[in-house]
Amino acid sequence: xxxxxxxxxxxxxxxxxxxxxxxxxxxxxxxxxxxxxxxxxxxxxxxxxxxxxxxxxxxxxxxxxxxxxxxxxxxxxxxxxxxxxxxxxxxxxxxxxxxxxxxxxxxxxxxxxxxxxxxxxxxxxxxxxxxxxxxxxxxxxxxxxxxxxxxxxxxxxxxxxxxxxxxxxxxxxxxxxxxxxxxxxxxxxxxxxxxxxxxxxxxxxxxxxxxxxxxxxxxxxxxxxxxxxxxxxxxxxxxxxxxxxxxxxxxxxxxxxxxxxxx
Length: 263
What we know:
Blueprint: E1 3-10, H1 13-26, E2 36-43, E3 61-68, H2 77-96, E4 101-103, E5 107-110, E6 113-125, E7 130-141, H3 168-192, H4 194-206, E8 214-218, E9 227-234, E10 240-244, E11 249-252, E12 256-258
Parallel strand pairs: 1-2
Antiparallel strand pairs: 2-3, 3-7, 4-5, 5-6, 6-7, 8-9, 8-12, 9-10, 10-11
Helix pairs in contact: 2-3, 2-4, 3-4
């Protein structure tokens, strides 16, 4: 059974979840949090990868962090993001009949615009020197409304017009429940059966926006050394496999990839 913590406004649901994990670690261990989900109506400092801001106004989106605290160390954080992305895609497709795409590694797209971001952050156990829990932050734009000018061209939502929906609060609850049920059941299945993750990865690849496309890659380390490449695959470690213009094949573990390229 899931334990929901509901907040009106917070800086970041991930920050709140990580503070809960820090406190739990001092008082018996993080597993006491189990399947805890922190939900906020609004975030004042929602964030994505590379410290980017995630616009999180009230009444138009769903913002939450799911805590995952398994009885074993977390060795592969990329796997968590892959499964979280699929959990969101499956929920949207089931509830609204829309089939989203995934832009490696953690963004969900509909009609060429980003409607969801995912940020997985680990909690470090100083005693075992391993990651013992994770905070999986998910922000979903449900209604396209009042986007800042600087993101209007890239940000999208499940619905473009509020006349398309009757009661957004009820819709948010249904989406929250569906995503979380998907998320935890997929995490449990993948931890028990490696084949479950292999099947999920196949679906992740089938939803990819990037496979077969030419992109510009911006490495997180030495990001000024960007380069062009063709995306050929996503491997079993969830790395983006690209072939550069000089014929090299690279498996990218991190970085930013843009399909908006000019050469």
